[in-house]
Amino acid sequence: MTDRPRLTPAIADVRRAVRESWDASGVVAGDLVLVACSGGPDSLALAAAVAFEAPRAGVSAGAVIVEHGIQEVTKQVAVETAGVLEALGLAPVQIAHVSVGKDGGPEAAARTARYEALDEAAAALDAKVIMLGHTLDDQAETVMLGLARGSGPRALNGMAVHAARYLRPLLGIRRSTTLAFCEDSGLEPWIDPQNSEDRFTRVRVRQAVLPMLELELGPGVTEALARTADLIRDDSEYLDELALAAYDRVAKAGATSMVLEVAELETLPAAIRGRVILRALEVFGATFSRTHVLAVNDLIDNWHGQKELALPGVRVVRTGSQITLKTTKTLKPGAC
Questions:
Q1: Cα-atom radius of gyration of the chain, to the nearest Å?
Q2: Which CATH number covers residue 99?
Q3: Nearest residue to 136 via CA among 37, 246, 57, 42
Q4: Residue 289 maps to which CATH number?
Q5: pTM
Q6: Residue 208 — very low, low, confident or very high, per pLDDT cuts 50/70/90?
């Protein structure tokens, strides 16, 4: 690793993305930012760029390395990555060892554990943002997976540059650029062998599906998918705002139940009504699909005295002009 790498296009692009993300998200002098770093090329390039830009902006910059314990080698990778980040000037640098559950499959469970660890670190250190190294390629893969699964606008929205405390400055940067950044900077990233294992759906999309589309349809498919996410997100966020206002009118929550007024639901456009139903279901804590939303919607459009619905963690029944969602658990505070 060289102390003062020459300024190459890749280094300039990543550093610029960091500066612009801070300007857009309100990061100012005196704030602490944390970089989530696995030691891979994307997050290592981001960490190096942050380490360069932070003192020039008067920003404090640290890092969190989440070690999932899934592979034996990652314990040593975490220690070595911490040393690299400290040498770059980041402080504090923390290693968070997590246990990965099984809910939703290995990828989803690892993601859940990772974000929980990052949230805990940010809260403990009072960090303004947590910076993630997702690239334009990651965005395209997310959209393609959403299309394949028929997941609807939430998945097709992709990832936002700034969402809550998370900041993704590299969503406009290709993975090839982060690799070039590391090479130009004399950094040696860790290449996770699991990123090449085709038992993971995302890996198959990355290694087979997107290259095939580029070959058959011509270059630019990856950029087009990422651009689609940006366009859909604008519309989806507006519809979400309308749905939230409608939900506040329609839903009345008690300790263990929620009542939805059918007359109000009947006046809502389909795009808004579906979002209101989904929000009501999600108060009960489970993960719900389009099929569940449509089943509840049938109690509005096609009600003929049918029995209650037994959905994950909640029972739904229509009585006259009201639909009641019931559970044996106490609802989350602020559910309605």
A1: 23
A2: 3.40.50.620
A3: 42
A4: 3.30.465.60
A5: 0.81
A6: very high
